[in-house]
Amino acid sequence: MHQRCPCLSGDTYSECCGRFHSGTALPPTAEWLMRSRYSAFYFGDAQYLLKTWHQLTRPEALDLDPEITWRRLDIVRTKGGGLLDSNGIVEFTAHYRVTGKAGRHNEVSRFQKVDQHWYYLDAAPPPRNVA
Fold this sequence. Notes:
Blueprint: H1 17-21, H2 30-43, H3 46-51, E1 68-80, E2 87-98, E3 101-114, E4 117-123
Antiparallel strand pairs: 1-2, 2-3, 3-4
Protein name: UPF0225 protein E3T51_06780
InterPro entries: NTF2-like_dom_sf, SEC_C_motif, YchJ-like, YchJ-like_M
Family: Belongs to the UPF0225 family.
């Protein structure tokens, strides 16, 4: 597949997230796992999303809304999640359209590496307001 990768890395899908989706490579960092998961949402690949979800928090099934068209991924910041880390955080904004209306999903995701595999753990709790 020579189309541009939906995660907007600048590479083609086959050079980028396609290799993770096909199982020929593992995402080396939490950010790359986040990008590949976004691309899985883009293509409606629920199996990949479940496979890359940490077993402690993974749902039994995942029903993706076919009405949502994912448009763009913006990585806001990362903390940890590198080659030598075992935990990482990726804050992102995913833009979408549903029934003709634009929307966006903002999240601070937590990731954990287990046996050299990165997994999505959960969305970090929102910051507490301190008065």
